[in-house]
Amino acid sequence: MKHKINILGTILLFLALSFSCVDDTTQLFNVEKPESVAQKEYLNDYDVLKTYISNSAGPNFKLGAGVTASDYVSQGLTYRAINSNFDRVTAGNAMKYGSIVGDDGTMNFGPVVQFITAAKAADTEIYGHTLLWHAQQNKKYLEKIIDDREIEIDPDAKLDVVDKTTDFSTMSSFPFYVMGYEPEIIDGVLVSNFPGEWYQYFVVDGVTTDPIKEYKVTAMIRASKEGAFNVQMGNWGATTEKQISVSTDWEEQFVTFNTITTESSFVVFQPGTFDGEIEVQWVRVSHSEAPSVSFYVNQLENSEMLVGGSMDNFVVREKGKADVSGVILEGEGPDGMNAIKINSIANPENAWDTQFFIYTPDKAWEGGEKYRISFWYKASANANVESQAHGDPGAYMHYAMLPSNPQFTTEWQHYETTGSIPGEGAGMKSIAFNLNVSTDAVTYYFANIVWETEETGNKIPLTPQEKADTLTYALDQWIQGMMTAADGYVLAWDVVNEALIGEDKDGDGKYDLRSAEHASETELANDFYWGDYLGDEYVRLAVKFARQYGPAGIKLFVNDFNLESDWDDNQKLKSLIKWIEHWEEDGETVIDGIGTQMHVSYYMNPDIQASKEAHVVKMFELMAATGKLVVVTELDMGLVDENSDKVLTVNATDEQLQAMSDYYKFIVQKYLEIIPASQQAGITHWCPTDSPADSSWRGGEPVGLWTEKFSTRKHTYAGFADGLSGN
């Protein structure tokens, strides 16, 4: 058949040439272009995207694209297409904490340096994503560094705890995986002999290990001659080697390892070229730890009553007034400490008309639980008080609490006692002081209140301040490392990413910061919430370190999604603007701009689409009013049909794709129209090509300006270009 076709083609060619000698306008046949091809032919007339940036765009406007760093670094098709069309790139994951920081805290910036080197070679800028986020952190490492610490004692007093033992006296054959050489078990002793070449074998497997501990491998061993050989501990790809000595007598020999990085480890003997006979009775893996002791753990968050700290543990109830947290009196306590005061009334009806509560809202105390409590106290006149056990403040449980009640005088005194929670107080949460035992009006003062549980163990929890200090140092090291790796090339960053939840749970008029308190089970399992330990100060710290270690002229953005939301009338953006104002109240923190992740969709329902467009406009208007730089950090677009169902690429019609094109044009034009030129920091298309069906990001959706692998331009390419040009 192939040959027949070729012959037919030759005949037709001959006939065509014959007729053309007569009339070169004569055509034998005409093939009509498919409509799908004809409809997209106009796209060939478009130039590369960055040539369409309007002259009216601001001097800081950059057209960016999201990329997978490894694809970009390989300098293939992606590299060429991106550099031709865009003047800035953002790495999807390569510059995030979780991609760089290992389980032991070591930081590998190699891929970041490669990414920057590739961008430099193309004279393409980089937008940094991201310095601080709750997701894609190394949760394991961060939780480890704030975990309970082992109690410091004399090293000689530590106990040797056995993790695993291999006792060959109970075996008749070698029990482990054979790595080319298999030692014998003879009369309950492992025996190995030099096979004439380098060799090794397992002696322990499946040891649960913790990277922060030091491990000792001990063996009852002898050899036919004195010498030494390697002992290897760890797991595949992450092992450490040490030399163990052997003599001709049965002896316990050991080596220690303090650089184990794996959670499950094995021990391998590597006699290598040691040509003597080796005999082993048993091998033991152990670690040392402090013995169990008693210690106290404070249950109050802000014992020193520091300004800015929570005062939820200290509740004041004055006659005729609602319960309130104690008001801090700066420097009015003993030796310049902070304090609080409570004013009692004269001629009370009851001793409890005026009360002060030391309150642990998140801890219900058990009957018989041991505690220690201390505080400084004084009053405006000599006075006695009573102490009671309450649940929440005012929920009376038992008439007596402390072993002895403080006797107030006009001089500062220190109170300290230990005791046990009375049985009648099981479940209590607060100690109530009745301050109207005296019938006179008296002002009472308290300072530096500490209420501790007695616990037993060999580890003690870090205090909230110790955790904050530890994480502050870790944040400092991370940002310093990233800025060193970037070497001044990256001038714009998401300094904090996705700081807000989508609700105002505390009723203060703005959406709350993300925290474990508001997280789902999946989020709790994967995310790390810096703000839970550093408070809202964590944003200020990130800004501080970025400016300290970053280049001059660095621009820092707070980035979030759903800022164009119509269901809450842009409330998330309004909240973010309030938070930025709050963070900048210290007079030192400066946030240069707001980043908006616009993972939008075009809705074929015209009413829904009109609402979406109205709130895109409103978002840009709100952002413009701040006077700050505005960057669209992650623009891409899905498609939703008239029934509110997601439309996949394979099902999208030409009409729908043209509607998406118009929406892209609308968004880009509105950005350039509404955001003043001096505030325009750029637009980044997050997903330039359609997403593959198996992608974790909008899999199978028509999000791109090109089809997959930059195969062909789409209608959306034209809409995006027209939006940039203003046509």
Quick overview of this protein structure:
This protein has 727 residues and is α+β, with helices and mostly antiparallel strands. It folds into three domains: 44-132 and 486-503 and 549-725, Glycosidases (TIM Barrel), CATH 3.20.20; 156-289, Jelly Rolls (Sandwich); 295-460, Jelly Rolls (Sandwich), CATH 2.60.120.260. Mean pLDDT is 93; it is low at 1-29.
Give structural notes.
- Residues 1-29 have low confidence and may be disordered.
- Strands 1-2-3-29-30-31-33-34 form an eight-stranded parallel beta barrel, surrounded by five helices.
- It has three domains: 44-132 and 486-503 and 549-725, Glycosidases (TIM Barrel, Alpha-Beta Barrel), CATH 3.20.20; 156-289, Sandwich (Jelly Rolls), CATH 2.60.120; 295-460, Galactose-binding domain-like (Jelly Rolls), CATH 2.60.120.
- α8 (464-486) packs parallel to α11 (537-549) and α13 runs parallel beside α14 (654-674).
- It has 15 helices and 34 strands.
- A hairpin with a 2-residue loop joins β6 (184-186) and β7.
- By secondary structure, the chain is α+β, with helices and mostly antiparallel strands.
- It is flat and about 90 Å long.
